[in-house]
Amino acid sequence: MASMSAAEHVARIRHGYTFEGDAVTLGAALVDGEVHPEAAVRLPLAMMNRHGLIAGATGTGKTITLQVIAEQLSARGVPVFLADIKGDLTGLSTAPAGSEKLLARTRGVGQAWAGRSFPVEYFSLGGDGPGVPLRARISDFGPLLLARVLELNETQESSLQLVFHYADRNQLELYNLADLRAVIQFLVSARGRTALEELGGLSKATAGVILRKLVALEAQGMDRFFGEPAFVTMDLLRPAADGRGVISCLVLPALHSRPTLFSTFMMWLVADLFAELPEVGDADKPRLVFFLDEAHLLFRNASRAFLESITTTVRLVRSKGVGVFFVTQTPKDVPGDVLGQLANRIQHALRAFTPEDAKALKATVSTFPVSGYDLEEVLTPAGTGEAAVTVMNESGAPAPVAWTRMYSPESTMGPSPAASVEAVVQASVLLPKYGQLVDSRSAFEKLAAPERDPQPAGAPAGREDTDAEARRIEEEILGRPADRPAAPDPAGGPPPGRRTRRPAAKAPAGSGGASEAFRDIAVQAAAALGRELARGLFGTRRRRRR
């Protein structure tokens, strides 16, 4: 880029961040070390569902930037979901007094600062910590996400998908870990081991690994997260009584002991919203904005299927009016296919203490448009609360890079008193709905009952009929011709061709025997296929709201 004077550079930034619609103000531009309040750096509300990245080394101001954006979104009626890992974000519900140092900083960037509190809903994973308990049914969470939490390999993951398929097909509700354990134990028992033989079966070795992982999960106290009442993600879209957007804050006092569960749960929320929300197209503002903190935990050691599901969900969920911002230390923490979809970038300082750090710095600079700044020189000595910013403008093009001194939050920077947080939790309208754990009748109770027949009613007794039914089910699940050979014709003719998928004929009234048996099988197979199709990109299941 040709060299510009300071005045030209300021004018370019000012023009590039002037938008027709409403926008969140991030701060004021810095050019040649001087702050220019007249060149406000802003992020259009209409472009927030194009997703974003907030990155930077520890202690450079990422959490404060997140707090500033969340406050302004709430003030404009946009709900927000974020995670409080260090306990600092509980200050959102408390108005600060404002020190002279703070007021001097806000005046310097042209911010009309006024201390105030915001409408906050505190949540906790299964009641671990202050907040309304968040729980999910095992069946809703799905096999891909659960395999991620259990750290299963791809073979074990595929076996877990088979277990979920069997439970779906046989009306075995998987609400908690005890339900899943009961189904796995049944499928390798003398009573149940033939149930999946036609689809490859479940080996005792694989079942043993999964069961040991489930026991370890329970030993860490994570069983409290799975169960009922299951959280309805649409509750995140509630407005406050005064019309402001509610900031849903997930308090995580023990992240170090369950980092994978936290990151996977956050992705489940996004996937569930994708399944539930209707398309909105291009709206003036997002329906909801997610901030996925510690984003590197989401991708570390993830399976190929899991990464593909994340990429697809992030790409498609924007059409539902949901924006997703990943918060992490460097852009290299995020896979390229996901990073390419994050149009809004806020990069705080990076430190280059090692050769690996220097490579990360060069890679970060390469993700920004060419600008009037030498970003390699600017990013390393940058102070706390400063960042390189580029956003997508209303025409869908990147705005010029602006080195920015960020605005300050209007709520308390730091934690609120524990008593204040508890008062907010007790006043929540969601506490009566989700506060108490419910133990409903599900797979554990059904399989424990001696009269339970877990096989589909009306299953054909003959070997030829069993083989034919196994081929049909395999074709339905895999979407291709079955590998199982067709049975020979009983009259001695050549083996029939592989079955084609066609609607089952309805049996005449009063007919019995094989016709009724196959009609029953067809009905159950259709129901099973419906449940399979109802599972989304992560194997999560779309829920009927009660």
From TrEMBL:
It comes from the Bacteria. Residues 487-497 have a biased composition (Pro residues). SUPFAM superfamilies: P-loop containing nucleoside triphosphate hydrolases. Signal peptide: none annotated. Residues 36-544 form the Helicase HerA-like C-terminal domain. InterPro entries: HerA_C, P-loop_NTPase, T4SS_component. Residues 462-483 have a biased composition (Basic and acidic residues). Residues 447-516 are annotated as: Disordered. This is DUF853 family protein.
